[in-house]
Design a protein that fits this description.
The structure is a homodimer of 404-residue chains.
Chain A (H helix, E strand, L loop, with lengths): L2 E6 L7 H16 L3 E6 L5 H12 L5 H8 L1 H16 L4 E4 L6 E3 L8 E4 L2 H8 L3 E5 L2 E3 L5 E3 L4 H12 L4 E6 L20 E3 H9 L7 H10 L3 E5 L7 E4 L12 E17 L4 H11 L7 E3 L6 E8 L4 H11 L6 E14 L9 H11 L6 E5 L2 E7 L3 H11 L6
Parallel strand pairs in A: 1-2, 1-9, 2-6, 3-6, 9-11, 10-12
Antiparallel strand pairs in A: 4-5, 7-8, 11-12, 13-15, 13-16, 14-15, 16-18, 17-18
Chain lengths: 404, 404
């Protein structure tokens, strides 16, 4: 007997018929002899409606009240799914975040889970009850309901799995797994059977919107095996697991891209000690997230500095640079028509030449690389947005990822 | 400075514009220098939708899950109203039943409030925060959310008023007070300025759907002064208060009626000791509520027994009589076309002839009285339903209640 956490998103529980469908999926897992806890999102559309109410009343509403309002969506689904399960003859009970409790910090609206007391759920499950848990929420140190930010139900599921020592956490979604790259762009993209936490983290944070980044971090920290699979098919999904569990390691596991990128270039910055701190200090103080940074070698006592940020932050970033940066520079330029493309794979650790394959494949297609950034398991480049599809297809082929 | 509890029903908070309107009403009370706690219902339609979901999944769903689902409606409204109040520059915070806590018994779906810990709310109010409380709910001994049954928000408001020692509990509704009788039927009906708890209890339980019966019982028990008034006008409402506070006592304060009545007659019951117990024991065991009972004087060793029950219970009552009653009888008859009309007034205690005025007024209009039942402050009669309007108008005039 294994202990499984199943998580179903808003589309999967979008109406009563679909909630019944989910109940049947839970039953199938029980019929296989497993113990099950389920984490659910709000019925699709509900959260948006509740958020709209809050915004209509006040643009800068109290996040604590926002949380009290919005967290109800998941509470409704958990009660309804418990009723649906009981209708199939399965013992079940619903749990709100505060009942378990799922203890969070007090950053209302985007709280982080601090601790989950798994004892009550564990006891209830051992007594034969399926635990149906409202996702996306917890209770803060102020004894008030908190929410984890959009997509937080994934994190709830992983955290619950860690707390009750589950053998696996199955995240049901509207795609059937993690792909080598976006299958809407590259027809030959393949589903990945297994992917390591580190790789998934890069995939998730680089724009592959399958799992919330924080949920992958949590899975990695607590070594929770996570499976991503479709709630509308019976095909096996992608297992996110420890690197050691993956026998056949690919050199490159996947290719991710992010369009939410903007580039800022400071030209003719006087080259003196402390200029990087002088430029990025004020940006950091303004809470602007800077991603890639390039500083060219100095010529004539000046240098150029290029950095990227998100498109939403670009205007604020330019304002900060113009108003707060004390370092002298000649001119400033910006570009929103850029995309970041990354090749990811734990195999890179032990193999040289991975970056070179990327640079050559892009050069062969005449794609200019504007910025390069690397980490132990990824190489990212910034290119003009118009080349996105061409670059993804070229790289997918170059790394031998195309389906046979 | 007075401490006021305000309660707003589903229609009053039916959309965002109306929630803003309620916020303005709360502000007006604060501007008068008062401390305010607010109890809110779910936005109109929301509870029905949630109940429909539960019913669609299972006709005999788990009441604990029903409570978890349905109680969210009030939680949403409380958060939204807190946001609306903050938008007017008023400090406010929302409270769910479990946060206060409002402790109930474990009769999920129709729980009774056992205790309210007023300390936390009291502290928050003393710190200058309006308490916005989700009505209709509590937390049971099983640490799960409970609901008080439809209309339970009135009870929440009165119980909160008792717990925080409020000077008055204002129940805002879609009528502007308690009337001498139904103004849709009797054009000359007048709004009553003050009514005693005992009278209001009779009016409420006899079908004047202004306040939930249980809320009046609770107000009487804790001596909470309750005002019923309209959320859509500024007119003063009706104060439900201690009899001693009413200086000008009317002989009859109001005339109530209930169409939810059905009559059952057992003819030719053998007259022997224990027949009443033999008839009503099985009905009581089947949880059928019997209201009026008449047993005629015995003739020829047999007697007739008539009783009333609700129309919804009639079929079950007939089944119980036919199957379970051991007392021999000749035949059984039933009638759903009856109505109970009652005159109510604490003045009756000290005045004779009140019933006689009723009997004469009805006789003058040729209305036959089928059953009579009296208590210290009311006289009820069962008549054919077709005479309802005629009877109400005749009695209203006979007791001098018509507007001048």
């Amino acid at each position: 007997m294994a202990r499984i956490v199943q998580k179903f998103g808003g589309t999967s529980v979008g109406d009563i018929a679909r909630i019944r469908n989910v109940a049947n999926r839970v039953k199938a897992e029980i019929d296989r002899g497993n113990e099950v806890a389920v984490v659910v999102s709000a019925m699709s559309g509900v959260t948006n409606q509740l958020v709209a109410y809050c915004n209509e009343l006040s643009a800068d509403h109290d996040q604590r009240e926002y949380d009290a309002v919005v967290a109800t969506g998941e509470q409704v689904t958990s009660g309804l799914l418990a009723i649906a399960l009981q209708g199939l003859g399965i013992q079940a009970r619903s749990w709100s975040g505060w009942q378990i409790p799922i203890i969070s910090d007090d950053a209302h609206g985007k709280a982080r889970i601090v601790d989950i007391k798994g004892d009550e759920i564990d006891k209830s499950m051992k007594a034969g009850h399926v635990a149906v848990i409202a996702g996306f929420q917890g209770i803060g140190p102020d004894n008030r309901v908190s929410t984890l930010g959009r997509g937080g139900s994934d994190t709830t599921a992983v955290a619950v799995a860690a707390a009750i020592k589950a053998d696996r956490c199955d995240i049901y979604t509207d795609v059937d797994g993690v792909y080598t790259t976006d299958p809407r762009i590259v027809k030959s993209a393949r589903k990945v059977d297994k992917i390591s936490y580190e790789e998934m983290l890069e995939m998730a944070s680089l724009g592959a919107k399958v799992l919330q980044t924080r949920s992958v971090e949590m899975a990695m920290k607590h070594r929770v095996r996570v499976q991503v699979l479709s709630s509308f098919s019976d095909a096996p999904g992608t297992l996110v697991c420890d690197e050691d569990e993956i026998v056949e390691k690919e050199l490159v596991t996947g290719i991710a891209y992010s369009r939410d990128e903007a580039k800022v270039t400071l030209i003719g910055v006087s080259d003196q000690p402390g200029i990087a701190a002088g430029v990025f200090g004020p940006l950091s103080a303004a809470n602007i997230n800077v991603d890639m940074i390039v500083q060219n070698t100095s010529q004539d006592g000046t240098t150029d500095i290029t950095f990227t940020t998100t498109r939403t932050d670009l205007d604020r970033a330019l304002k900060v640079v113009k108003e707060s940066i004390k370092v002298p520079y000649k001119s400033i330029g910006s570009d929103k028509s850029v995309v970041k493309v990354s090749v990811i794979g734990v195999g890179m650790r032990s193999h040289a030449g991975v970056a070179q394959t990327m640079f050559k494949a892009l050069a062969d297609k005449g794609i200019n690389i504007q910025v390069i950034s690397t980490s132990e398991i990824k190489v990212s480049v910034l290119i003009a947005e118009e080349y996105t599809e061409l670059a993804l297809r070229a790289l997918h082929t170059a790394y031998g990822l195309d389906a046979a």
